[in-house]
Structures are given as C-alpha cells and as structure tokens.
Here is the input.
Amino acid sequence: MTRPESHTATDLLAAVRTGDTVAADRLLVLLYEELRRAAGRLLAAEHGGNTLMPTDLVHEAWLRLGLASVNGRAALPATDRAHFVALSVRAMRQVLVDHARRRIAAKRGGGAVRVSLEERDGSAQTSPEELLALFDALERLGEVEPRLRTVVEHRFLAGFTDAEIAELLGVTPRTVQRDWVKARAWLYHAMYDAGASV
Here is the structure.
C-alpha cells in the first residue's frame, strides 16, 4: 500500500536534485515526523548517557545528506519517499557510529558485545560498543546481501511494515519475513561466532 505523500515526496526530491532549496525545505516538513520516529527508534536502543535527541539526529542526517546547503544541486540519489527514508536512516546510523566512537575514545572502555534484533519497544538499550558492532555487521551484510541489509534497515531501524518493504523491493511480504529471519541469523553469526568466516 503506497503512502499518500509518496508522489509529493517524489516530486520534491526531483526538484531538490535541480537545486531547489525551497523544495528541500518542503521535503523536510513533509517527512519530518517520519524521520523523527526513525531517529527515536535508533536512539531508544542506546544506553543512557547519549546526549543526542531525535531532532538532533534528524538535523545531523539532513546535513550529511547535503540538503541543508544552499549552493548548487544536491547529489541525492533518492527517487521516492522510501528510498529517501532509507538514506536518511543510514545517515543517522553514521551519526550514531561517529558519536559512539567519540564516546568510546573518551572513556577508553570495552565490554561484551550483545545486541538483540528482536522487535523493540524502546526498553532495551545497547552500549556504543554494541551499536558499533551491529552497524559494522550491517555494513558487511550489505556487501554480501544488499536486499537483506535493506530489510533490516527498513524494518528494524525505520519501522516499515513487511508490506511496505515488500512493495519497495518488489517482493512478497512472505519473502520479506524470510529475509528478516535470514538477516538476523547472518548478523548474529557475524557478531558472535568468533573465528567463523561470514
């Protein structure tokens, strides 16, 4: 089922690529709450001590995507809402990785790496080390199985439904469910099975 703003977001993204800064502002207004929810999901997984708020994370991602610049055309490859949200989640994830690395460097600590890919309600939290391990494994998964990484990003990080992901990928919801199971197993293996090749 296509969300109603999809066509509007598509038009705005096309305008942004031509250098239309007004379109970039309108795109942010249109998708802001969806991006804040995705940022909230990412931040909910972290232990206390993170000074970032969802709004901060959205704005940092916006800057990283180059949409806050006023000069020239944005080199934004997104063509529709779902693709743009996925790119935004990746940018937010990179902000968190950088933030976690700074926190780890500041405390020079270590610790066990355990993270759950179960559905989250915001109560489970992970350390910066755990998030780095997850995001690193997710990048490696994308090199081997790009569709599986997309399923994890959209379902676990952006909160898309199986039906929305299926529509985006051109597969059935059942295929998305199988991909989710396979991706979780791959990530677990990559993160916890020491000495195993993935």
